[in-house]
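# nightly structure sweep
# worker-07 picked up a monomer target from the shared queue
# config: single-sequence mode, recycle default, output format = structure tokens
# input follows
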Amino acid sequence: MLYGVHLDNGQCTPLQDTRQDVHCYLMPFPSKTNREAILDAAVKQVEREGLAKLSLRSLASSLELAPNALYRYFANRAHLEAAIANEGASQLHATLVHAASEGDAEQAIRRVAQAYVDFARNNPALYSVLMTPMATWGEETSAHDEMWVFTVGLMGRLTGARQAPEAAVALWAFLHGIVTLGQAGVFGPQKPPAAFPYGLDAFLAGLPRFQA
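# output follows
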């Protein structure tokens, strides 16, 4: 019997059942196999179907890989989910940084607020993942940390460094609340979506009262 062996796991895969003796040869994973390709495919699957329907088997199939090939890059599903959340945070962070690149401090915060809400509306499944507590993060926290440092720095331009963390959490809570209400279909004639700019105006108008 002839077998193929993947370099990464040393397992024999039957290829031809014509002989009684066993021969193995080394068969490398496809050259396109890498962490970025797997993660990109996983993010696309989550965006289409949601995290609950993430299937490692279908993910491997979309990349023309055996399912066990994924474990070379992600120890288990929990680590893959954490990587997807980190990727979502990375994309959101890049979006916010771009939005803050023009205007004074207040204008930058307004642009960031709108960019945050737009990102969540345009990428609902990915946004949901990045806001989901993970059973294990491993090393997948860098993008979240970078986004937090960016947000604190942005708010500090108006409040000063001393009050910046509190202001950053308050802005985050307001924006996440707007996103969540929108996803729940709450807004309508009696609950107008204009509550978003109204609330943002009120938030920014009140910040000077708390400046150190």
